[in-house]
Amino acid sequence: MKTIRERTSMVVFAVMAMMGVAFLAAPNLANSQTTTAVSGAASFNPPPCDYKDQFYMDNGLDPTQVVGRFGSARLTGPPATGNQVNWVADSTCSQRDPDRRNFRILAITGGFPDDQSGSPTEFITILGFVTNQNLIPSGINAFETTYSRNVGAINGGLDGDQQNPGETISIVNSANPRSITMQNLVSNFEAYPAPKQRLANGQIALNPCQADMVSPLAPAQPCFDLSTVNAVFTPALRQDWRFATNRNAIDGSDNNCISNNPAVCTPPNGTGSAPPQSDSPFGYFCDDLLGMWINSFFWYTVDPADHTSPLGKTCTPILKKLGQQNGLTPDGTPIVKTGDELDNILEANGCAAEGQLAFDGSDGGAIWLVCPAIPDPRAGAISADAFLDQAHNSNGTVQNIGLLENFLSLQIFGVFFTQLESSQQSQITAQAVKQQ
Amino acid sequence: MPNAKGIRVSRRDFNKLAASTAAVGPFFLFSGRAGATQKTLKIAKWSHFVPQFDPWFENIAREWGQQHDTQVTVENIPVEKISAVASAEVKAGKGHDVFIFPWPPAQYYQHAVDHTEIYQRVAGKYGAIPQIAYRSTYNVKNKQHFAFADFWAPSPLHFRQDYWAKVGMPLGPGHYGSLYGGGKRLRDEFHIPCGLAFTPTLEGNITLHTMLYAFRAWILTGNDEVVFNRNVFAGVALKYLQQLYRETGTPDQLSWQPGGSVQAMLAGKTSCAINAISLLRAAEEQDAEAASKIWIQPPLLGRSGMGVTALPHITNCSLVWSFGQNQDEAKQFVADLIDSSRTGYAASLGFNFPTYAKTVPDLIVHLGKDPQANPHDKYLLLKDALHWTPNLGVPGFATPAFMEVFNSFLIPKMVQRVLKGQSSPEDAAAAAAAEIQRIADKWQQVN
Prior knowledge:
The complex is a heterodimer.
Chain A: H1 2-18, E1 49-51, H2 53-58, E2 87-89, H3 93-96, E3 100-105, E4 107-113, E5 122-124, E6 128-130, E7 134-135, E8 140-141, E9 147-151, E10 154-155, E11 163-164, E12 167-171, H4 182-186, E13 190-192, E14 207-208, E15 223-224, E16 241-243, H5 262-265, H6 284-287, E17 292-295, E18 297-300, H7 310-326, H8 339-346, E19 352-355, E20 368-370, E21 387-389, H9 401-412, H10 422-435
Parallel strand pairs in A: 4-16, 4-21, 13-17, 14-15
Antiparallel strand pairs in A: 1-3, 2-3, 4-5, 6-20, 7-8, 9-12, 10-11, 13-16, 17-20, 18-19
Helix pairs in contact in A: 9-10
Chain B: H1 11-22, E1 27-30, E2 39-46, H2 53-67, E3 70-77, H3 82-92, E4 98-101, H4 116-126, H5 131-137, E5 138-139, E6 144-145, E7 148-153, E8 157-160, H6 161-166, H7 176-190, H8 202-214, H9 233-248, H10 260-266, E9 272-274, H11 278-286, H12 288-293, E10 294-297, E11 314-320, H13 327-337, H14 341-347, E12 353-354, H15 363-368, H16 400-407, H17 410-419, H18 425-444
Parallel strand pairs in B: 2-3, 2-4
Antiparallel strand pairs in B: 1-3, 4-11, 5-6, 7-11, 7-12, 8-9, 8-10
Helix pairs in contact in B: 1-2, 4-13, 7-9, 10-11, 16-18, 17-18
């Protein structure tokens, strides 16, 4: 995705330059009420809005089971702070996209893509949470088991000659017409929240309190709690998210094997140690139309201050090196930006673990997110009144200023930070430093 | 094969074939005409799990023999005896002309002709070698193909939907955490254990290799370097298995013979299994109501970035021995057999997934309209199976070292020691790693 975006960004930037688009000066974001900062032709991407109930249902999710749904709940409070609101009523939402309802989302959560780059270029909107597959004893399923709606039927016109039976959107036995259950589809898209592990008493908890998630690498107590959706609110996270939006990218950027030619899909002489393919039958932006994710929580299984236990001795140099490279979270643990860092460096050595909440809801908490990534955050998608939801350091400063720079750059100029002229970059950096 | 192409096999035909051949036994002789100078072709193959397939295969072989003036014999060998029979033939330097394995026979590469020629012949009709076939039959050392893979079988999770609905998971467990959590509740509250196979059987082997891989506990790299237990993943996976067995399992899991986990699920005694669809097919044959309650889903979501993944239950690999007396006929038969993939798919009741997609171009249509399934699109969940099925040997190829680890049941034996309390997870993993290292070293020294 990054490749496509960057390539496209160049084109957009060139077009904008040729058209003589006058970039706006940085607005006073705190007071801004306009929806669009980027002007004219550069402002063709709509800002994010919540989906209509119909769209949720057409895609296999019962909207009444979406917890904390933007537009209906969470007007204030995390991720917003103070008087800031997370969403506003906006009648243009459904005009721009008939699948959206008229609530525009201001809370834009930033994170890292899952392409090993560690680039702070992902922007998503956490519309709500799904906490249960099936509510016992009521039997209400968050993922629909049956559904049917006919669309496009025409009965009449041209003196009754025009007839079209339309198409039926159906869910039978929990599966859509492609025989895919929503649960299975979403399992292909993992979002990685990093819960804070340092407890109020200053202790580091090395496992979640949910028994079925406990890693055998660390003691079960003390533990950090994931039993409410608040556990994935940014104040409860020690670092920014990572999202696998690039699963099965059509350009092969996720290293999935998209060619039938063994020479393309196989490491030279078959000697590579990496898996030959990181394949998924689904593409995030073409299959996961609600933009849903399964939360794969990850946590440290070793106290960063532990330099003496066997695991501490193993992990100390690893954590030190990663911390120097990426910086530290408020817990004093290193920030993790890529899957390689988590899987092959930390987890492989027993320094970290990951897990998901139980599908029956017995663990509580947010098993899944309705949290669509913004497919193209450039050219108007980040409105002037939007705000960035990101992790902060203990002293209140933002943890990843690059994320803020990208956000402001997209908000003001409609392009990523790296696409700006140096003078514009200076302007954005100054703004970011001032704002953080 | 030329005239076999396009043969349609109905269920009625299956039954007729089965009835007519039932009295013959597992050894079949087909000849176009008797004669001292007539060519011969002896085929050994694993006994298919879908009973209707073997009579179909014998019919195909007979027709091929008639067209090629060749006396063809087919011997069906139970899966659990395949390795012993193949090893005996290698030792004796004689045996069948074509030996069809249910897994990549990489250990026998020194005794196999180069099957690249067969892949090249097939390429003209069906395209380049598919990944799963390439990585299952290519020897990176001598740069030859030691076998030809024409079909494979995915390993979806089978689960009793009615049982899992009782614990709030009507769509199944989805990931390994929920397999444990839901499985524990099912056993605690309803006395229904989880039924994954942990014994030294094919299903135990596939189940446990799948689970280790899903926990990132890889065995070997593409270079045959041992990575098992070089990180914590093996230990974590074994501890998970220990907990899963203790809190969701049944002692039967440690004593099941081949097919034991399937029989337990068919009897409604267990809640889930990792298996080829022969399990569900058997249920459909035996008890339609019970079959309607057995659902399948893609594999469980793995840990540490492994995603949704399961190893193939079967990788059907035809091998022509280099010591065979009729190599030309054997290669011709194997190359021609691919033309019958479409009818083979039907004869196997959808068990045989073609390696060459073009041989069954309407696979998804068949999956979506299965006359036996209830509902008829139940198997459509398998349409993306190739995406979540890597080859045995992943992340490397199916190398001789990996396949020796596989065929010696080293992994199920390791897990059994832990589950029986004979060894700690750490010690069992260390011992297995040492054995894997010994095997890898041995093969490193082989040219």
